User: Fold this.
Amino acid sequence: MASSTHTASRGLAAQEPARPRARPSRRPAGGGTGRWAAWAFLLPLLAYLLAFYAYPLYRNLDLSLRDYTVRSFVQGDAPFIGLANYREVADNPTFVPALTHTVVFTTASLVLQFGIGMALAVFFHQHFRLSATLRALFLVPWLLPLIVSASTWSWMLNSEAGVVNTFLGVLGIDPVNWLTSPDWSLASVIIANVWIGIPFNLVLLYSGLQGIPQQIYEAAALDGTTGWQRFWRLTFPLLRPVSAITLLLGLVYTLKVFDIIWIMTKGGPADSSTTLATWSYQLGFGSLLPQFGPGAAVGNLLIVAALAFGLVYIRVQRRQGGTA
Assistant:
């Protein structure tokens, strides 16, 4: 009897489902300390972003929505006027020329910087002798302070003693008033900005070329393709992601170019080289009676334009990633 009872109990025990064993906790010891350490590393960055990005953007937006004078700027009691500063900017006769000059300056600079930078990147990708040395020399305009570069171009394009007009005289061409003629002032600052921006495009595009496998070009050469066909059908499509970010960064930088134009022409003569960036400075700081509100409004227009192009870039990248 006892043996049968024992056998039955063993059978019931065998039918009971096995209880899952408790898994050991994978939480590392001192998890709270790790989170505090992460916040300790993150807080300086957050403080930097708030102090040097978020707060200036807020102040600039506040300036554009209030009627600030020198007294109210110090005391902080400027009345709220909404979008009146933006309407004043849009009605100003300088707005349309400044907007047109900004578009021309930005478009011409981007096209020339990217085109010349691409040509130089492909040229230096051949890895010939002295390639590294010449590539390093092309970085000099990018390494120089902007005030030095702009001052150098002002001297070179001087109507009377500039080396450019001296060279044109040797060729039998009449001197050009590069910086004092309304017909040439915008072209002059574009030339200087292109010269400064070429190394940036060269570095990014050359790094993109380094990431393309050489076997692709070898296979294309075996198929009998020409150099232009290899560039147009292989190099250019494979460089599309790098080209997109190069153009975007160049666009954001070019939109806010101020120092080159201000040092060379101060936006003149007769506002012929005035852009939105220089006009914003002229409104806010260029006179004895500064117009803080309209100047901030013009600056916000540049911010919105740069943000819009950035959002377009992100959207295009997401679409390409989704279809890949």
